Amino acid sequence: MKHATAGMKRWSSLTVALGAILFFGACAKKVAPPAPTPPPSPTAPTASLSANPNTVDAGQPTTLTWQTTNATDVSIDGIGPVDASGTRQVTPTDSTTYHLIAKGAGGTQDATARVTVNAAATPPPVTTSNATEEELFSQNVKDIFFDYDKYDVRAADQGSLRADAAFLQQHANIHITIEGHCDERGSTEYNLALGTSRADAVKNALIQAGISGDRIKTVTMGKEKPFCTESNESCWQQNRRGHFVYER
Amino acid sequence: MNNSARRVLQRISFVALLCLLTATASAQDWIRTGTGLGVERVRLAAADFKPSNADPGNTALLKTFNDVLWNDLDNAGIFDIVSKSFYPLQEPGQPSEIIFSAWNSPPPNTSMLAFGNLAVAAGKVTVQGWLYDVKNEKSPQVLGKQYTDNATDNAVRVIAHRFADEIIFRLGGGVAGIAESKIYFVSDRGGHKEIWMMDYDGANQQQLTHLGSISLSPRISPDGSRLAFSSLVKNSWEILMYSFDLNRLVSFPRFGGTNLSPSWSPDGKIALSSARNGYPNIFVLEGSGGNWRRLTNDQGPDIAPTWNRKTGSQIAYVSGRTGLPQIYTMESDGTNVQRVTDQGYAVSPNWSPNGQFLTFSWMRKYGPGEPGSNDLYLMDIASKQWVQLTHDAGRNDFPCWSPDGRHIVFQSHRSGTDQIWSMLADGSNVKQLTFKGGNSQPNWSWK
Question: Which value does ipTM take for this structure?
Answer without folding.
Answer: 0.88
